[in-house]
Design goal:
The structure is a homodimer of 392-residue chains. Chain A is α/β, with parallel strands linked by helices. The first copy, chain A, folds into two domains: 13-43 and 61-130 and 137-265, 3-Layer(aba) Sandwich (Rossmann fold); 280-365. Chain A contains eleven helices and 14 strands. The first copy, chain A, has helices spanning 19-24, 69-86, 102-111, 158-164, 200-210, 226-233, 245-257, 280-285, 321-329, 336-339, 351-365, and strands at residues 13-16, 31-36, 87-97, 115-124, 140-147, 173-176, 216-219, 237-242, 294-296, 303-306, 312-314, 317-319, 341-344, 347-350. In chain A, the strands form three sheets. The first copy, chain A, has an eight-stranded mixed beta sheet with strand order 1-8-7-2-3-5-4-6, with helices on both faces. A four-stranded antiparallel beta sheet of chain A has the order 9-10-11-12, covered by helices on one side. In chain A, strands 13-14 form a two-stranded antiparallel ribbon. In chain A, strand 13 (341-344) and strand 14 form a beta hairpin. In chain A, helix 5 packs across helix 6. The radius of gyration of chain A is 26 Å and the shape is elongated. The two termini of chain A are 14 Å apart. At the A-B interface, helix 3, strand 4, strand 5, helix 8 and helix 11 of A face helix 3, strand 4, strand 5, helix 4 and strand 6 of B. The structure holds a DNA duplex (19 and 19 nucleotides).
Chain lengths: 392, 392
DNA sequence: GTGGAGCTTGAATCCCCCT
DNA sequence: TAGGGGGATTCAAGCTCCA
């Protein structure tokens, strides 16, 4: 490869090499959308064990190590600058990260002139717990979605996203599972091939929301090729760049095995609706029942005091509404929602009724009732054939 | 006002003035926790505004944009530097923002030496919809929770958070409604007094998770005083700083109307690390378990004999309940309290249960059941003046 | 086949006091 | 201050295995 001459656009390929070097060879303004999953600079200090003494297989790869924040910033500015050059005027970029790196990426995106459209929270349905009980469970990652500039007339497939979300606007928080099971690429020993393979569902939503069929999608950190595979499936064109030979090889094979969906099927897929779970503690926080309140059972024989963390206290005993109910009645279990009551003007009201009230208030409080301005939205078009001449 | 002399800590007050100027007068290392909701409306108006609300004089577009970001960074670095000085070594800070400003704040926090512990997503149950249908509904805001430094031994009330969430670890995504209804402060025309008043439930969770009763909580952008009001309610000490006279006045009245919860109502599930340590030997001394007793692991495969000094003996090996458990299982460490059991009528009981029994007996034997020493909360009304002299 | 128990695993900045 | 040791700490999925 000669670094100076811009090559023709190598479509539907996984290119092996350093992402900045390879990007330098591609022509300006040639890409519709970029999805980037750069190293997070995790800075793990030592071994971490689960309470059962098994060792957590953390990300200790060399590619995630940087000497300091300045080195990470320099790396980030380099690849984002090239990415911006490759993006056409109305194109958009997605970058995913965690709190370790996403603030640096967001600031540099803004410094370079990108215009942030949304920050999207990927809420994981099955995150790894916090084993030492020293922080909140790190249960999400953040994606920044940005246009090339403030005046970009970018693509957002509003109707497709709304349809994907049971006909209400898609929100900035997405609830999706990790990449596990058969989707996870494994080596001959059955071990995960890549420590941070992203779920296909995530890329599905990204591509359906912000690209059209036949759009060119670039992934500068292609890894095992999730972006490329989903682009092929959804009949987008793709360019993947990957430095590590093993990952690149796996990605090439994966994309080759992928079959594009039928033309008329490149549309929305239904999404499971989440049922909101209401912890008792949230009723306390929201002052539906104040800390210090007294609750009692139906027969007014057992009493307990509500504490600010949502536990109940009765003498020396403390526990959740369920646990304390079980303890005081010597039962193996207890539904605290129906067991405990508050006295409201002499009448006993079960906690379950309070919960129902809180949920009702939540939905009526919503400000989301205004109609949308009626301008036409781009939706996904039907487009010509796949062109997957995959190269190495 | 002489910026050089540090004043005594003005507890339980709303101070009117520019936050950096006021902070400069407070003594270093005097604050346990900071909650900050800095302004981030700089680019949302037709004209560009500096953080002090003055209009940026348009020269040319590029310069303006750069000037705006640079001005915001400068402002952010200023107040965060003072905040870090005021924070005691093991204190933590919370900063809330949206994608407009949170990336700059996060990067500067890291640059200043703060150590990010979590980024917390406040998912709004009732967000404003996206009226133009050109983006995802912006349905969340981001909070960064950070310790003063990498080696801070910060407070995290793990058990309280777990209790608040129905006995599973609290995650980094919080689902809470906006501040509406009676909680929202309004002016004489019924219009909302402050554009971004935060819900009390959010501050409840923040304060319960990361502060103890009597801790000093600082809010440099106090607004209508949500932080101060919740601190008073939960029996924390507070210092609020607010520049705008109308907001400060509203906050002072609001805090005055707030009543602290009873002492016994603000107690949350205690952290086990803070429980008094009970050496295993004391159980032997007090004959909860007799010397010569046999203990075994859960599967009855490993056995050991209790010696009078509280060590366990297995063949030639001898050590503490922890050491011997680790030795016999070839593990790097072992919690002997949960590893070893005694056989009680054919049923295995962990040593941990014995310890709980001993502690329960201790507390019932104890005569010391008096509540915590109550310190009088300064009410704003009781103070000679509102200290607005502090500020310019 | 089927259901339940048990095992494995996931981008993780994961302890703290005393000597 | 570096080292030693007490002892606190996990949730949701998907898979295997066996009854």
């Amino acid at each position: 490869m000669s670094g100076a001459t811009a090559m023709e656009l190598p479509l539907d390929q996984i290119l092996r090499g350093e992402c900045v070097e390879v990007m330098r060879m591609l022509p300006s303004g040639s890409v519709d959308c970029i999805f980037a999953d750069p190293p997070y600079n995790l800075q793990l200090r030592g071994e971490l064990r689960r309470p059962d003494d098994t060792v957590v297989d953390g990300v200790d790869d060399d590619w995630d190590k940087f000497s300091d924040l300045a080195a990470y910033d320099h790396f980030t500015r380099d690849w984002l600058s090239e990415a911006r050059r490759l993006l056409r005027k109305d194109g958009t970029i997605w970058v995913i990260g965690s709190y370790h790196n996403i603030f640096r990426i967001g600031a540099i995106l803004q410094d370079l002139g990108f215009w942030i459209l949304n920050d999207i929270v990927w809420r994981k349905s099955n995150p790894m717990p916090n084993f030492r009980g020293r922080r909140f469970t790190n249960a999400h990652e953040t994606m920044i979605w940005a246009a090339r500039g403030q005046d970009s007339r970018y693509r957002f497939n509003y109707q497709a996203m709304k349809a994907l979300n049971d006909d209400v606007q898609m929100r900035s928080d997405w609830y999706l599972p990790l990449c596990t099971g058969g989707e996870r690429l494994r080596n001959e020993h059955g071990l995960k091939l890549h420590p941070t393979q992203k779920p296909e569902s995530l890329l599905h939503r990204v591509l359906v929301s912000s690209t059209a069929a036949d759009d060119v999608v670039l992934d500068p950190f292609a890894g095992t090729g999730t972006t490329a595979a989903m682009a092929k499936r959804l009949r987008r064109r793709f360019i993947g760049i990957e430095r590590h030979p093993d990952y690149a090889e796996a990605a090439i094979g994966r994309v080759r095995r992928e079959t594009p969906l039928p033309h008329d099927a490149v549309a929305t897929t239904p999404m499971k609706r989440e049922a909101p779970r209401v912890p008792f503690g949230s009723l306390v926080e929201r002052n539906f029942i104040a800390p210090g309140s007294i609750v009692c059972d139906k027969s007014r024989r057992l009493f307990a005091t509500v504490s600010p963390d949502g536990t109940l206290i009765c003498g020396a005993k403390r526990g959740s509404i369920h646990k304390l109910g079980a303890m005081l009645t010597n039962a193996p279990s207890c539904n605290g929602w129906t067991f405990w009551h508050i006295d409201r003007d002499g009448e006993l009201v079960p906690l379950d009724a309070l919960r129902a009230e809180s949920q009702a208030q939540e939905s009526t409080e919503s400000t989301a009732t205004a109609p949308l301005e009626g301008h036409e939205m781009n939706d996904i078009a039907d487009l010509p054939n796949e062109r997957s001449a995959i190269a190495g």
